Amino acid sequence: MAQVHTPKSAAPPVTLTAGGARPATTTSPASDGETMTGAQSLIRALEHAGATDIFGLPGGAILPAYDPLMDSTKLRHILVRHEQGAGHAAQGYAHATGRPGVCIATSGPGATNLVTPIADANMDSIPMVAITGQVGASMIGTDAFQEADIVGITTPITKHNMLVTNPDDIPRAVAEAFYIATHGRPGPVLVDVAKSALQSPTVFKWPTKVELPGFNAGVKPHAKSIQEAARLLATSRRPVLYVGGGVIRAGASEGLRKLADLSGAAVVTTLMARGALPDSHPQHLGMPGMHGTVAAVASLQKADLVVALGARFDDRVTGKLDSFAQNATIIHADIDPAEIGKNRHADVPIVGDLKDVFAELVPALAQEHLKHGKPDLEAWWQQLDEFRTTYALGYAPTIDGLSSPQYVISRIGALAPDDTIFTSGVGQHQMWASQFIRYEHPNTWINSGGLGTMGFSVPAAMGAKVGMPDRTVWAIDGDGCFQMTNQELVTCAINDIPIKVAIINNSSLGMVRQWQTLFYNERYSNTDLHTGHGTKRIPDFVKLAESMGCVGLRCESDADVDATIKRAQEIDDQPVVVDFTVSKDAMVWPMVAAGTSNDSIQYARGIAPQWDREE
């Protein structure tokens, strides 16, 4: 019998649109009612769901699906070198395009290698569909070769998952997976298909509707909540729009800008929301939180009204939660009702798609302005501008004479085309890339926020480039992150995916080393990577890049930074890897130490901003 697990709540049937993000592929008359194997049905279902690109690696349990995959004219399969790379590539693809990314792996270790990207996608609300092979239905539970209960393993880290043992259920399982991944709060869905189902005959039938009892993707914000939020915004004297990644996922940047312009409120964009509002917007104060700007952190601490939009009051933003924005009334808008009040009580909860929230809140605020007049925010902005000017982002010259990583990253941002997509690994280079590159457009900054996955950058850049082939894609990586997933450069070289990789090479695990400097008396336990400066480099990243079919460049001085970046950007027919030698003593500032109040932010080591915390 089939074991297709569906959500256990009730709502009317919904009409299926492929991928939940674009029109479905028209079902050809030869499809429905045609007899085929379950494997052929799986490939046909992926085509009908709107998939065009798949990242994967074959193995025994999924092998039956790879034979009909050869005959597909609609699916491009990209053979990765490691399943983790497939998962992160699917994430990068989804983030760059707004469409669900698709990855495929075999049973056992193939499936478990997808666990990290699945968990990553779950934390950052990335729409992703993972297809895994499973041992034959009769062998499930026997500890068969390469058997792993991937449904059980991934239950806590997927939006939904399912095991399919009946070939007749494959099309519906795929349709549901794409729908669930993209409707409501996006997230990863896993479809585990038994090998016996792939090998058995079936009659293909693509569902025209998806029956998901209780699944409600069309929640509209409550009118009374919208009205109260508008009233508060119209009468606040120190308002802040706290913008999270949900604005990016909702494609709601235009609505955000209208609300910012009309309200006059300060705007801060989290690590996952960079680009949701252009950095050039005069009300944009930058990123809040542990390594946010002083102005952004201060605005939240001193606000009388915080409007959280698609944000989840993450600990990296709030610092010590009970000291966060203590004097502020909280409006919290999110498509996921589970987020409302999870970490911070919401005085005005708004559940709904942020496009709908903005569409209703902006005119409601205009009406409130007619009643109350526009609030006088002059004193508020005078204070914020003082913070912004006095404590602007910057960095000190390096002591060892090597290039400053902040300088290198800022020059990449300055010289890259305006619509360049940037991905990053996790660590110091991630923070510097979020601070020193100016983001003017949504979906141009792709990183691992919630899970903090090292090795994310290169495969995510690969996926982004596949999804947006006409855009320049730079992966900003650290020498530690790069050594985790650089094998996917082989995939890029073979498949004509010309990404550009900047290795910010400080020969160490930089963020860990920074913490050892600050909190462990400079006892540098196991953070030296020996990637080296000078003649001894293990590995030599330039030679490694060349061995993988890429162009390898090296830059060892500030004088050569611009020329090296320009050279990398001139190369469009193969991947480019640039090894930037930088100082290992550079640190990320500002900084709020973990577990402390945002009031304890340090602008630089030993330097705390001076602000009057009395209201």
How would you sum up this structure, described in words?
- 56% of the residues are buried.
- The strands form five sheets. A six-stranded parallel beta sheet has the order 4-3-5-6-8-7, sandwiched between helices. A six-stranded parallel beta sheet has the order 17-16-18-19-21-20, with helices on both faces. The chain has a five-stranded parallel beta sheet with strand order 12-11-13-14-15, with helices on both faces.
- Helix 7 links the parallel strand 7 and strand 8.
- The termini are far apart.
- It has three domains: 197 residues, Thiamin diphosphate (ThDP)-binding fold, Pyr/PP domains (Rossmann fold); 168 residues, 3-Layer(aba) Sandwich (Rossmann fold), CATH 3.40.50; 177 residues, 3-Layer(aba) Sandwich (Rossmann fold).
- The protein is built from 23 helices and 21 strands.
- It has 615 residues and is of the alpha/beta class.
DSSP, total strands = 21
Helix content class: 25-40%
CATH superfamily of the largest domain: Thiamin diphosphate (ThDP)-binding fold, Pyr/PP domains
* CATH C-level name of the largest domain: Alpha Beta
Structural class: alpha/beta
Name the average pLDDT. 93
Query: What is the count of DSSP helices, taking H or I runs of 4+ residues?
Result: 23
Rg on CA atoms, Å: 25 Å
Largest sheet: 6 strands, parallel
How large is the share of residues in beta strands? 15-25%
Overall geometry: globular
Q: How far apart are the termini?
A: 66 Å
CATH architecture of the largest domain: 3-Layer(aba) Sandwich
Q: How many domain regions?
A: 3
Uncertain ranges: 1-30
CATH fold name of the largest domain, please? Rossmann fold
Strand order of the largest sheet: 4-3-5-6-8-7
